[in-house]
Design brief:
The complex is a heterodimer. Chain A contains 15 helices and four strands. By secondary structure, chain A is mostly helical. Chain A has helices at residues 4-13, 16-24, 36-57, 67-76, 81-109, 117-139, 144-155, 164-172, 179-211, 217-220, 231-256, 282-290, 300-316, 318-321, 328-352, and strands at 26-28, 228-230, 294-295, 298-299. Chain A is globular and about 65 Å long. By secondary structure, chain B is α+β, with helices and mostly antiparallel strands. Chain B is built from two helices and ten strands; from the N terminus they run αβαβββββββββ. In chain B, the strands form two sheets. In chain B, strands 1-10-9-4-3-2 form a six-stranded antiparallel β-sheet. A four-stranded antiparallel β-sheet of chain B has the order 5-6-7-8, with no helix packed on it. In chain B, a hairpin with a 4-residue loop joins strand 7 (112-115) and strand 8 (120-122). The longest helix of chain B is centred in the first third of the chain and has 28 residues, at 10-37. The N and C termini of chain B lie far apart (70 Å). The relative contact order of chain B is 0.14. The chains are: A mainly alpha, B alpha+beta. The interface between A and B is medium-sized, with 35 and 30 residues.
Chain lengths: 353, 154
């Protein structure tokens, strides 16, 4: 029964529509159901990032002089600061790993087919925002590795004709990576990207609720009704078990393998040997490394950047292209998905050798 | 010739006018935003260094100096003449280092190699290191930009 306060609030907010919806929402059960858990795992890590991010901002100083020292202070002086930074760093990796899994499962089960095209497209934007969070966050400790990674990453757009040089300048806050870049990246990381990601998440989650859970292709054609469980409380309780497991793994890794912090970056020093970006950019890093200086009349890196852009655009429009998933075209796209995964894995392993 | 009917209605005319105003208003808001986010460029026309700091350099050695926000590299050749480069890789902008024993410039980011004259010889760099012009005037070492275009062949 509703208490007085509940009905008072409900008369004003009308929240009972939402609770009614959640009570009636069901989740289908089939052999691909496991992928349904990846979305809420991402939300779990996202929440951790928001909370630990708020905490780190209390001590972090986004300036050339202060950045590295303030991170060192968080790691050594601030009570439990090292755990907070470690969790923030590890949860970032987990988040991106689950974003990849979430997205590949959608690709392979083809859940992006009509009417869920926009859910996929908002998801591609969310992927881009997640990678942008990772890229900007990597610079903030301001050590040698993060400086070189940022120089390379922000120089890439320069290959694009007309707008490229301006994009590089916009990202760097000038022609070169300097203290201004650090302050600007901090701005991206803690104010601009969060606004975008909250809007995108809102759209993405709304669309998922509107269309309900997607079914795998094999399940769709069957006559008998699929087994379903209620979202609340059955599915949520199962998700909670997954969250607890993931939290256990996350905190264990964060405590036993905290991220390192090198000496403060020197803008004049040569790039250190063995530099690497974060693991989720390794396949791109290796691609850039193996592209020769000249291919026909084009610069190697220009061509590489164009291929990356093209891949991104094709990826965004996948649901439009994969519109006959059960026919030959759909099977070819599935094979392409597997080739892409194999390529990324091989390149990543190669870059680590 | 006089047309019997107007080519567009009063409503179309007013909508066009209003749309034009709104576009102009938007542009007047966007212009300062765009101006604001791009800071003025800082590449210097020249830098003047005290020659005394560099006189002691041995042959086949390098010393860095500040070229705007980039590292500049001054190299003394075996015959005692001086060469100056912008010390960033032409591939993707990482700072390069000089390996004196191999007589090569090296970029660690993507394995880029240049010979001792800054010519790109291996890995992804598409162009030679950017050269700067060195001149000595009494006690000053003056380092200037080469014209707008870089000399491609030495």
């Amino acid at each position: 029964m509703k208490t007085g306060i509940q009905s008072w609030l409900d008369e004003r907010f009308g929240l009972s529509n939402i609770t009614k919806f959640l009570k009636e929402k069901t989740v289908p059960q089939h052999k691909h159901s496991i992928w349904y858990y990846t979305g809420s795992a991402i939300l779990l890590f996202f929440t951790i990032q928001v909370i630990t991010g708020f905490m780190l901002v209390f001590y972090y100083k986004p300036t050339l002089e202060g950045a590295n020292a303030s991170v060192a202070r968080i790691m050594t002086e601030v009570p439990l600061g090292w755990i907070i930074r470690s969790v923030h760093s590890w949860a970032a990796s987990f988040l991106i790993a689950f974003v990849f899994i979430h997205l590949l499962s959608t690709w392979l089960t083809k859940s992006y087919r009509k009417p869920r095209e926009l859910t996929w497209m908002s998801g591609v934007f969310l992927l881009a925002a997640s990678l942008a969070f990772g890229f900007t966050g990597y610079l903030l400790p301001w050590d040698d590795l993060s400086l070189s990674a940022t120089k390379v990453g922000t120089d890439l757009p320069r290959s694009i004709p007309l707008v490229g040089a301006w994009v590089t300048k916009l990202l760097r806050g000038g022609e070169d990576v300097t203290g201004d870049t650090l302050t600007r990246f901090f701005g991206f990381h803690v104010s601009i990207l969060p606004v975008f990601i909250f809007i995108l998440l809102g759209v993405h989650i709304y669309l998922i609720q509107k269309h309900g859970m997607g079914l795998p292709l094999v399940a769709e054609g069957k006559k008998e009704k699929m087994r379903e469980i209620p979202f609340w409380p059955n599915f949520v309780f199962r998700e909670m078990v997954v969250w607890l497991l993931l939290l256990g793994i996350l905190f264990s890794l964060a405590i036993f393998f905290p991220p390192s912090l090198d000496k403060a970056a020197d803008l004049m020093a040569a790039a250190p040997e063995g530099i690497k970006p974060e693991w989720y950019f390794l396949f791109l890093f290796q691609t850039l490394k193996i592209f020769p200086a000249k291919i026909l009349f084009l610069n190697g890196d220009t061509l590489a950047v164009f291929l990356m852009l093209l891949a991104g655009i094709l990826f965004f429009f996948l649901p439009v292209m994969d519109n006959k998933p059960t026919e030959k075209k759909g099977r070819i796209i599935t094979i392409i998905a597997l080739v892409v995964i194999a390529y990324a894995v091989v390149m990543t392993v190669w870059s680590l050798l | 010739m006089k047309l019997k009917h107007s080519l567009f209605s009063r409503r179309q005319f007013l909508n066009g006018l209003l749309g034009g105003w709104l576009a102009a208003l938007l542009a007047s808001f966007l212009y300062p935003v765009i101006k604001f986010v791009f800071p003025p460029t800082r590449e210097p026309d020249q830098v003047i260094l005290p020659f005394a700091d560099f006189r002691q350099m041995g042959p086949n050695s390098v010393k860095t100096f500040l070229w705007g926000a980039k590292p500049g590299i001054l190299k003394k050749k075996d015959d005692g003449s001086l060469l100056a480069f912008v010390g960033v890789c032409t591939h993707l902008d990482c700072n390069v280092s000089y390996l004196a024993d191999q007589r090569k410039f090296f970029c660690a980011c993507h394995d880029g190699w240049y010979d001792e004259n800054g010519q790109n010889i291996g890995g992804p760099p598409p162009k030679p290191l950017r050269r700067l012009v060195v001149s000595i005037e009494e006690e000053d070492l003056i380092i200037k930009r080469e014209g707008e275009e870089r000399v491609e062949d030495l």
